[in-house]
Fold this protein.
Amino acid sequence: MAAPLRYALITLCWGMMLIIYLPLLPAAGILLTPAFSLFHWQQLLGDPQLAQALIATLISTIIAVSGALLLTLLVITTLWPSPGWQRLASRLPWLLALPHVAFATCALLLFAEGGELYRLLPILSPVQDSYGIGLGLVLAIKESGFLMWVCWAILGERRLAEQTVVFKSLGFGRGQCLKHVILPALMPSLSIALLATTAWTLSVVDVAIIIGPGNPPTLAVLAWQWLNSGSPDDQTKGALACLLLLAILAALAGIARKLWCGWRAHSAHPDGCRKPDFPTVPGKCVALMLPLSGLICTAFLAYLAHVSLPATNTVNHSLWLALLSAGLGAAVCLMWLEWGPVTHQRWVDFPLLLPALPLAAGQYQLALYGWFDGLFSTVLWGHLLWVVPWMLFVLRPAWRRIDSRQVVLAQTLGWTRGRIFLRLKCPLIIRPLLSALAVGFSVSIAQYLPTQWLGGGRVPTLTTEAVALSSGGATATLAAQALWQLILPMAFFLMTALIARWIGHLRRGLR
Amino acid sequence: MRFHGEILRHALLGLAILSPFAASASSWQQIQNDAKGQTVWFNAWGGDEAVNHYLDWVSGEVKRDYAIDLRIVHIADAADTVKRIQTEARAGRKTKGSVDLLWVNGENFRALKEANLLQTGWAEQLPNWRYVDTSKPVREDFSVPVDGAESPWGSAQLTFIARQQQTPEPPASPQALLDYAKSHPGTVTYPRPPDFTGTALLEQLLINVTSQPDALKQPPNAQNFAAVTAPLWAYLDTLHPLLWRQGKDFPPSTARMDSLFSHGSLRLSLTFNPMHAKQKVAKGELPKDSYSFGFAQGMIGNVHFVTIPANAAASAGAQVVANFLLSPTAQLRKADPAIWGDPSVLDAHTLEPEQQNALQALIPENSPPVLAEPHAAWVNALEQEWLRRYGTH
C-alpha cells in the first residue's frame, strides 16, 4: 500500500479512538478530585457499615468469579472440542441475553422468603444471608455463560484442538489436558474477561439490591446510596467508596496474577503419569442446565408479566443505536487492530473497569461544551465508549493468534496490506467478529446512564424506560420490561450463532 | 350617604384587588402566548404505569388547549436529573438546559435551590394558585422556604397497610404497635433507612415518643440530639428483637415489603401514599382485604412539587403545564384511585360545588391528621445515628 494512504489510515484510526475516549480526561478529574480530602477518607473508614459491607462484597465477588470460572472450565474439559460444545454455544444466548436484573428477580421469586420453592416445599425455610453468598452464586451462574461465550470465541481455532487430540492420544486424561494444554493457551486471553467480570461484580448495584445482603448491603450499594444523597459530604464519601472498589479490584487482580504465576512455575510440565479418569457427568449436566436456566427464567418472566407493548420510538432508538454502534464499533476495532499500535494499550480497557457514573458525567461535560447534547448521534458516540472496548476485548485475542506465517506467505505472493487485511485476516477472524458484534449490540442495548444524560431524555430506549419503570419495584412491570430488553439481544445473538455455524460448514478450518 | 360611602369603599376595594390581578392576568396572557408551540421536557419519576398514563393524558390536554408539546422523560430517580442539572451548571450552560420541568421535593429541591439553579417567584403567580390549600406545607418543603420556586402538585402521608382478616383492630399508637409486634413476633418491619419511607417512620416515632417535640422544628445540635432522641432509641431497642428477622435485617424498599406482605411473611406494610392500598388492591397486587391506617394522633405528611430549572429552554411552557397540573380537572383526575390516586393539594372550599363534592368523595375516610415533617436536617442526623446503632448485623 502506498505510504501516504497508510499514514492517512493511521491518523484516522487514532483520531476516531481519541474522539471516543476523550471523555476519560474529564472523568479522571471527577473521579480523582475527592481523593485528596483526608477528612472524607476518615469519614468513610470510620463508617460502622464499612467492614461488614466490605466482607459481603469480597465474599460475593470471589464466589461469583471463581464459581463462574470453575463452571466454565468444567464444561470445557468435558465437552470441548466435541459437537456438544457447539450445541452448547448455540444455546448459550438463552442465558446471555437475559438481563442480570431479570435473572436475579427470578432467583428472588424462586428462592427468597415467600418464594415459590418454599410454597411448594414448606419444610424448607430460607436462611438469612448476611454475607452475599446467594448473590455470589446467582452471579456465578450468570457470568459463567459470559465466560463460556468468550472461550467459545477463543477456542474456535483448529490448532489448539489438534494439540488436544494429540495430547489425549498419548493417554493423558481430560483433567491433565485442561492443566497442560488448554489453560496455558486460554488464560492470557481469558484474564481480561475475568478482570472485567470481577470489576462488574464488585460494582453491581441493581442485582445486589434485589438478592444481596440487606443490613448492611454491599459496598457498591452503599456507594450508590451516598452518591444519590443530598449532602455533599455523603457524595464525596460515595466517590471515595468507588475508588476503594477500584483499589480492591487492583488488589484482587494482583493476587490472582501471583497465584497463576506461582501455579505455572510449580507445574510446568506433565510428569508422564497418566490420569485418564475424569467424570464427565457433572460437566454435561452443567452444560445442559445453564441454557435451560435462561429458558426457565424467560418462561417464568413471561408468566409473571403484564405485557403491554413498548412505544415504537423506544424500540427504534434501541435497535438503531445498537446496530449502528455495533457496526461502527467493529470498523473502529478492526482498523485499530490493523493500523493502531502493535502493543496493547491499557487505557483502551478503562471503560470496562471504571464506574459508569464519572464516565457518563465526563461525556456530558464535553457534550455541553460542544453544544451537541440531546442528539441521537451524541448518544451513539456515548455508547461507543463501552461498545468499542468490549468488542476489542473479544477480537484482540483472535487477532493475535492469526498465524504470522500465513501473512508472510501472502506478502511473498505480492498481496498488498489492504488485500491481506480484507481477504486473509478478516475471514480468519470472522467467528470472533460475529461474536464481538453480538456483544457490542447487547452492550449498546444495556446502556442507561449515557443514554439518559447525553440524550437529555430526548432519545428514550427500551433500557431507559425499563430502568425507570423498574424503579417502582412492581414485579409484573419488571418482568415485562425484562422481556422486552431481552428480545433484541437474544435475536441478535441467535442470528450470529447461526451465521457462525453456517460459515463453519463452508470453511473447514473454522468448524 | 352612608350607603354611597359603602359602595364607594367596595368599589375602591374591588379596584385595589382587581388591579394587580388584571396586571397578572395580562402577563399570564403573555406567558400563554409565549408558551404556544413550545416543547416542554418534563422529567418525572416513571416507576408506576398509573403515573405514566396520567401524564400521557396531561400531554394530550395541554397539546389541545395550549398548543404545548409536552414530552415526558421517565427517570428512575430525581437525583440523577439533579446531577445532570448540576453538571450543566458547571459546564456554564445558562440557557437551553435539558430540563424544563422536574418533579421533586425534599433533599433534591434543597440541593437545586441552594445552588441557585431554579427559577423563583413564579409559582404563586399561577392563576390556579388560588385553589391551593395553603394550610398544607406548600410554602415550605422540608422546612426549606419555597419562594415560589416550585408549584405544589400532590400530597403524601405516611400510612400503614394491614389485612382486615389478620388485623381487624389496627394499632393506633407506637405503644400499640409495640404490643402488636409482641403478640405477632417476626411479622412487622420497616424499610432500611436511608430509604425515605423508613426514615419517615423514624421521624414519625420520634415525634410520638420524644419529650421535646419543639426541638424538632429547629435543626438538631450536638447538645440536644442525644436527649431529644433517647426515647426513640429506647423504643427501637425494645421493638427490634420483635421484628422480621429479629431486626437484624431490613427490606430495602416498600416494594419489597409489599411483596412480603402479600406472601404472608409480614402483617404490616408501609407506604407514603394514603391511596396506595386501594390502588394496588384494584390492580390485584395486594390482597383484597388490605386497608390503610395511621396512628390516632396523626401521621407525618408532605407535599411534592414541580419545579423549573433556571436554564430551562421553555420556561413559559413549563409554567403553563404547572398551572394545568393545579387545575381542578387535573387534580380531581389525579386523586381518583382508578387513575392514579395521588391526593390533591387543592382546598375543596375554593371549588365549584360539584367539584367540591367530587374531591371530598376522594379524600379517604377517617384519615389521620397530618403532622408536619421535622426540619430537613433531622433526616440525615437520624439516618446516621440509626445506621451507627442498627446498620450492621
